[in-house]
Design goal:
Mean pLDDT: 93
CATH architecture of the largest domain: Alpha-Beta Barrel
Low-confidence stretches: none
CATH superfamily of the largest domain: Phosphoenolpyruvate-binding domains
Number of domains: 2
Number of helices: 11
CATH topology of the largest domain: TIM Barrel
Shape: globular
Distance between the termini: 46 Å
């Protein structure tokens, strides 16, 4: 697969300028949410241009019910591992709940930690016009910011659950927030669980890439969580597509291993030393 996002044969990291150029050229691209060394090395080899170390690690990696309990101290080692294990992809680190809401100073402190300790290339935070001061402070400090509107998981309790956002009159608010974030300096915007028509309109009206998840095919890019992509997630959401069924494969392998140990078949001659 050849893509302009990798700068040809230079084998360098994808940058925000590459993503901007892809938008101008009409080139669609994929982003994956992932958290650790072994999988991201595979995704980097597959030429996925952007990897997001999401706070969804809470429910997919750390055993939490949702994203809200996740802390900066928990995400930094994961982000650092993703950066260390890749050579091409841009690595974006999620700001967890409670790490930026209080104001620009808190946001900058969190951003500096992700840049210095994890060596992330950009950060992502949730929210509309209310987080514009935080975004401006980060951008002024040289930290690229990705926005996130629509269904914002950190606000799941305030939103009344995981529901489609932006239907009816609420669509105007999301459009206004999207334009406010662009004006504040975000280099890209995630739209989650919004009507396809709204996401397509926003993608056309903004000059920055719009990344959809449950937002239809009219966005400039698409993101999935890697466990959903690989069919590991039990009861995956409607917005996800499983391209493989690794849950069945892994379940079968674990059962076969246990059975062979029980019967004495493992280890066999191939795994035995004399």
């Amino acid at each position: 697969m050849s893509t302009s996002l990798y700068g040809g044969s230079r084998h360098r990291r994808v940058t925000i300028l590459d993503l901007k150029a892809a938008k101008v050229a009409g080139e669609k691209w994929a982003m994956l949410t992932s958290y650790e060394q072994m999988t991201v090395a595979i995704f980097d080899e597959a030429e996925i241009p952007v990897l997001l170390v999401g706070d969804s690690a809470g429910s997919n990696f750390l055993g939490e019910e949702n994203t809200i309990p996740v802390t900066v101290d928990e995400l930094i080692p994961l982000a650092r591992a993703v950066v260390r294990s890749t050579s091409r992809a841009m690595v974006v680190a999620d700001f967890p709940f409670g790490s930026y809401e209080s104001g620009p100073d808190a946001a900058l402190a969190t951003g500096i930690r992700f840049f210095k300790e994890a060596k992330a290339h950009a950060v992502k935070l949730e929210g509309g016009a209310k987080v514009v001061p935080q975004i401006k402070r980060l951008v002024e400090a040289g930290i690229p910011v990705m926005g996130h509107l629509g269904l914002t998981p950190q606000s799941v309790h305030a939103l009344g659950g995981f529901k489609v956002q932006g239907r009816g009159e609420d669509g105007a608010r999301i459009i206004a927030d999207a334009k406010a974030l662009e004006a504040a300096g975000v280099f890209a915007l995630v739209l989650e669980l919004v009507p396809e028509e709204l996401a397509t309109q926003i993608s056309k009206e903004l000059s920055i890439p719009v990344i959809g998840i449950g937002a239809g095919a009219g966005c400039d890019a698409q993101v999935l969580v890697w466990t959903d992509l690989m069919g590991i997630t039990k009861n995956a959401p409607k917005l996800a597509k499983a391209y493989r069924n690794l849950r069945i494969e892994m379940l079968g392998a674990a059962k076969e291993f246990a059975s062979e140990v029980s019967s004495g078949q493992f280890p066999g001659p191939e795994q035995t030393f004399h």
